[in-house]
């Protein structure tokens, strides 16, 4: 079976071929500015070699998922899996020789780099029995092997760069042949680019990139200007799998296309200015009208103090000897405490009020129920209110014994968010989001919520698991339960 595929034609119309067998041993580097036709070139290469070799595509923009419609590629949506699952998939595709497309377009750049590193490392670390030949295509390689630090953390950058270096430097003996494409050679790590022996250089305008491309093609510096004049879809090729001398290649057509297609000019909408304004701003203008706020009628301070004094005069503590009445009064007081906490939490802003204000409100509400003394002091109220925010109004309920034991290592102000998580895990529901945890904790600061979750995890009360799509689930080791992903 021939391993030669046609990639396009030269200036005289003769076919230009790539020897796939040689390509697997010598690797490929493609460079070109945005719009030069890099993705089209990679698509042509993948389509023509689909029946010859296993293909693994790292696709940061989701451009190549349409190959699965015409060929036997399996699309892996990275946002649906966590790092451990991605690594497991990477190992399995080597064993089963599956052609796959790792679609990273739903992830942020840091998550893309972490996911790609885990995937490539798993393929690289596969057992020797699974070292089958595979063409590994990485689009936008400068994202995964940057020449300098950027907006991502150093840990993520080093892990991604290490995985790309392994692919290009040590992957050949393991059957992995890298074919990487970049917009700018200057942004791609030199030790990654230097391992390629085959080059396809498209249009580029910056002097530093033209100079590096000319050096790789063995051209003199004064000839580098020709790279600037290349048309879209035209590349200069060189390498043992392409040609021993630089050759101009016009990339041939493809049978598939991207999901978005090409960006053609379209006529502008014919809507009038007033109509367009209505469509753009109508909902926001409606939302800008404040909703009416209904507040209870204010009570004068003197009248409030009079009512409290009357209630104090009408009620008295139970006689010390009457144990039956004392127990009954305690039961009634507990019922009033629960009802009062429920009434207070009916106000969605209640959790954000100062503690002193909340206790005063609680005291007044209890006295209005004709309780002689406030049944809780400030410390006891702080704990009961935290429990109530977490959904536990009766802490003596046996249902909450295990969750409260698991929360014993946490301070009282963290009980509410922990119990919300525990309740979701016990009910098999989705993990509470940051807004829900913030209301339970009494803060609107995302940073404080992040530190809260980190602290609870460091204390061993919870275990946080996030997939690459950003969906979070939280497990509680002492209960052996976990929330659903959210």
UniProtKB/TrEMBL annotation:
GO molecular function: ATP binding
Helicase HerA central domain residues: 5-77
Keyword field contains Protein biosynthesis: no
Keywords, alphabetical: ATP-binding, Nucleotide-binding
Keyword match Nucleotide-binding: yes
Protein name per its UniProtKB record: ATP-binding protein
Organism: Sphingopyxis macrogoltabida
């Amino acid at each position: 079976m021939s391993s030669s595929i046609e990639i396009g034609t030269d200036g005289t119309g003769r076919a230009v071929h790539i020897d796939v067998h040689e390509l697997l041993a010598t690797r490929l580097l493609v460079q070109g500015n945005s719009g030069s036709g890099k993705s089209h070139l990679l698509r042509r290469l993948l389509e023509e070699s689909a029946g010859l070799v296993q293909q693994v595509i790292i696709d940061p923009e989701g451009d190549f998922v349409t190959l699965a419609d015409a060929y036997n590629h399996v699309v892996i949506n990275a946002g649906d899996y966590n790092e451990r699952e991605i690594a497991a998939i990477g190992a399995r595709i080597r064993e089963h020789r599956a052609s796959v497309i790792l679609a990273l377009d739903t992830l942020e750049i840091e998550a893309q780099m972490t996911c790609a590193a885990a995937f490539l490392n798993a393929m690289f670390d596969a057992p020797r029995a699974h070292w089958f030949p595979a063409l590994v295509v990485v689009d936008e390689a400068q994202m995964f092997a940057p020449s300098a630090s950027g907006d991502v953390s150093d840990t993520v950058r080093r892990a991604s760069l290490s995985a790309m270096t392994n692919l290009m430097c040590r992957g050949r003996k393991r059957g992995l042949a890298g074919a990487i494409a970049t917009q700018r050679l200057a942004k791609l790590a030199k030790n990654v680019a230097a391992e390629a022996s085959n080059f396809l250089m498209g249009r580029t305008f910056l002097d530093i990139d033209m100079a590096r491309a000319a050096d790789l093609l063995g051209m003199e510096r004064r000839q580098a200007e020709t790279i600037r004049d290349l048309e879209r879809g035209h590349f200069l090729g060189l390498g043992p799998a392409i040609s021993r001398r630089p050759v101009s290649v016009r990339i041939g057509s493809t049978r598939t296309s991207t999901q978005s297609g090409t960006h053609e000019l379209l006529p502008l909408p014919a809507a009038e200015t007033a109509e367009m304004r209505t469509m753009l701003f109508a909902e926001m203008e409606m939302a800008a009208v404040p909703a009416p706020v209904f507040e209870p009628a204010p009570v004068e301070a003197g009248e409030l103090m009079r009512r409290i004094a009357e209630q104090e005069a009408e009620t008295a503590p139970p006689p010390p000897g009457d144990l039956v009445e004392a127990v009954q009064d305690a039961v009634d007081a507990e019922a009033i405490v629960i009802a009062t906490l429920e009434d207070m939490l009916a106000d969605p802003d209640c959790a954000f009020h100062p503690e002193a204000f909340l206790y005063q409100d609680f005291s007044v509400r209890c006295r209005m129920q004709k309780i002689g003394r406030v049944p809780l002091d400030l410390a006891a109220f702080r704990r009961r209110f935290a429990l109530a925010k977490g959904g536990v109004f009766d802490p003596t309920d046996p249902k909450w014994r295990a969750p409260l034991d698991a929360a014993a290592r946490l301070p009282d102000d963290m009980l509410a968010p922990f119990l919300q998580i525990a309740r979701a895990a016990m009910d098999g529901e989705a993990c509470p989001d940051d807004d829900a945890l913030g209301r339970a904790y009494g803060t609107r600061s995302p940073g404080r919520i992040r530190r809260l979750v980190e602290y609870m995890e460091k204390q061993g009360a919870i275990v946080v698991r996030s997939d690459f799509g950003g969906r979070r689930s939280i497990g509680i080791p002492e209960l052996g339960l976990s929330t659903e992903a959210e």
